[in-house]
Amino acid sequence: MKKSSVYVVILALILMFVSLVSWIMNESTFAILASNLGLLILAISYIWDNRNGLMK
Predict the structure, then answer these.
(1) Which stretches are transmembrane (predicted)?
(2) 15 domain residue, yes or no
(3) Is 53 part of any domain?
(4) Is residue 12 included in any domain, yes or no?
């Protein structure tokens, strides 16, 4: 894994953890936003890292 990919995964995991804590604290709107942002970051990172394999 490249160093930038590791940073992106760590950021997405932090957002997922923030989402979990927000959900426990009954901040459902922020929890949904944080989890969706984390998922979006992971999806874009995965597609960007594997873009050459997807075009074949």
Answers:
(1) 7-24, 30-48
(2) yes
(3) no
(4) yes
